[in-house]
Amino acid sequence: MRKLTSILAISLLGILLLISGCSSNAKSEEKPEKIRLDYAYYSPTSLVLKKFGYLEDEFKDDGIAIEWTLSQGSNKALEFLNSNSVDFGSAAGAATLISKANGAPIKNVYIANKPEWTALVTSKDSNIKSVKDLKGKKVAATLGTDPYIFLLRALDKEGVAVDDVEIVNLQHGDGATSLTNGSVDAWAGLDPHMARLEIETGAELFYRNPDFNTYGFLNVREDFAEKHPEYVQRVIKAYEKARQWVLDNPEEAVKLLAEEASIPEDVARIQLERNDFTEPVPGDVQRKALIEAGKILVESDVIDSGADLEELTSKLIDPSFAEKEIEGK
């Protein structure tokens, strides 16, 4: 009797383990009910993606809904990612590094663009002609974004202490307005606002350095990537379709950007001319760029001095998804 009881117990345990294993496998293969992404005026390919419904078409047969959220800046995109409000978010590389250093559960899987989207800007009649002229001045910048980091790097390069400048934390559009009405002396600008001010007010970009602009990152939440790797790759597939459309249709891209961002076409044209859409796979180039930006961020106490920048960038940048989709063709 005892032997029979033992056999039954072992059999029951085996059945339970089998059921548990099947349940676990089913769970791991579950598809998401919806995929949540941001779109941003500083990320033209995201606007193309949304406008033409490439993602909606890609996931229609799967019954997966697509949910869009507007990001007004990298800081907002990263807030959305960190708070689990979106699965994918568009942000500048250096801003993404700051977020990762602060523990955000994100990784970079695709390069949307290499932009020169930021510069230091002042009004047409200003006496500010160089970075050194910023001593004792008010400079608008959005904390935690590429323009802010660009400002820090420019000050460092030109030997101006951060404490010698009054940085006024304003969202990008508000910074442009504050420069126009004289509330600040200079602005760490961002397109398309920057291009608009150039055309409408004669604003001057008195300090430019393309190498201080970090890349346009498409980031994903780590938990989404772990649960749904095949869907990450399919999102990249749709982004690739949008990127190729921009490359093949430059004039139509100008019109689309102007329409979606509610800006004049000449402003949209300047913004697109400052973007390179030819290198979508992240890798060593982006790692090196972030490490250089990270050094200034550590010196400025934005990133903890104990942070290992090489380890951070290695954990952040994951080229495998883009490589499979793009280089695997």
> Total domains, how many?
2
Strand and helix order: HEHHEHEHEEEHEHEHEEHHHHEHHH
**Number of extended strands:** 11
Helix percentage range: 40-55%
Reading side by side through the largest sheet, how are the strands ordered?
Answer: 7-6-8-5-9
Rg value: 23 Å
Total helical segments: 15
Euclidean distance between termini CA atoms: 63 Å
GO cellular component, one term: membrane
Main location: periplasm
Subcellular location: Periplasm
Family: Belongs to the bacterial solute-binding protein SsuA/TauA family.
Nutshell version of this structure?
This protein starts with a helix and ends with a helix.
Structure in words:
47% of the residues are buried. This protein has 2 domains: 34-114 and 214-328, D-Maltodextrin-Binding Protein, domain 2; 118-212, Periplasmic binding protein-like II (D-Maltodextrin-Binding Protein, domain 2), CATH 3.40.190. It is built from 15 helices and 11 strands. With 329 residues, it is an alpha/beta fold. Mean pLDDT is 90; it is low at 1-28. The strands form 3 sheets. Strands 7-6-8-5-9 form a 5-stranded mixed sheet, with helices on both faces. It is found in: Periplasm. This is Putative aliphatic sulfonates-binding protein. Part of a binding-protein-dependent transport system for aliphatic sulfonates. Putative binding protein. It comes from Siminovitchia terrae.
